[in-house]
Amino acid sequence: MSEDSSSSRLSSRGQDKSWLDKLMSSFSAEPKSREDLLNIIKEAAANQLLDDEAVGMIEGAIDVQERQVREVMIPRSQMVVIKADEGPSDFLPTIIESAHSRFPVVGDSMDDIKGILLAKDLLPLILNGTDGFSLDHIIRPASIIPESKRLNVLLREFRENRYHMALVIDEYGAIAGLVTIEDVLEKIVGEIEDETDEDDDGYVRKVSDSEYVIKALMPIEEFNEEFEAGFDESEVDTIGGILIRAFGHLPTRNEVTEIDNHIFRVLYADSRQIHLIRLTLPE
């Protein structure tokens, strides 16, 4: 090995050591604020001691300490729930269509939380059938938390108590929404997608040649173009609005109506709006 090569390598090591020493001395100086700490981390990244992904996760972990549940929760209007008095034939379509793994079980209202249903606990139905089935026997206790709870505290509780979903209440004790461990982790590592996630920009999912699941917020203009329909665009803007006008009221799940030979079945609706619809095209 040449002396020049050895000198170059030693020089490089010396620079690395210098940067490590500088980084360690910066930490030993005890940063006085969040901004001081972030500046140290960004300086380390600028000198290639950390990559962008690592910096993003560190910043996310720091940010979680200052955020509250209300900032990441799924709002009440978007919750997919199961009613305690429903049978498998009633709630299984909802579970299948939503592709979620956990569902709040409610009584007479959204504020009457009975527990949490895990989709995997329904697997025995495949072998045993529905004879003698009761939701009361398989639902699990629900964790109720205030919307002001800090995310870092909630994440610790998720880990320690080994649960993945919590119901969120507002200052008056009413259900404001729900939050999952995934919602919290996404604030640290970024968006987590799996095989059941749908494109947020897409309104239509094909089920068969004649059946589709569509979002009620789909603009009528796009619906007409997609399905070669001729629905009136003058009075309402979305296909959900067309359905409410056809029903004459805000429909509930499984209500069916036919418009110009197009059959619509409501898959998911709450007390405010329709969310998801199954469309059967005319033959």
Automatic annotation (TrEMBL):
Keyword Transport tagged: yes
Keyword DNA-binding tagged: no
Gene3D superfamilies referenced in this protein's UniProt entry, alphabetically: 3.30.465.10, CBS-domain
Domain CBS: 73-132, 138-195
Keywords in alphabetical order: CBS domain, Cobalt, Magnesium, Repeat, Transport
Superkingdom classification of source: Bacteria
A Pfam family hit: CorC_HlyC
Main function: Plays a role in the transport of magnesium and cobalt ions.
Family label: Belongs to the UPF0053 family.
Protein name as catalogued: Magnesium and cobalt efflux protein CorC
Organism in which the protein naturally occurs: Sessilibacter corallicola
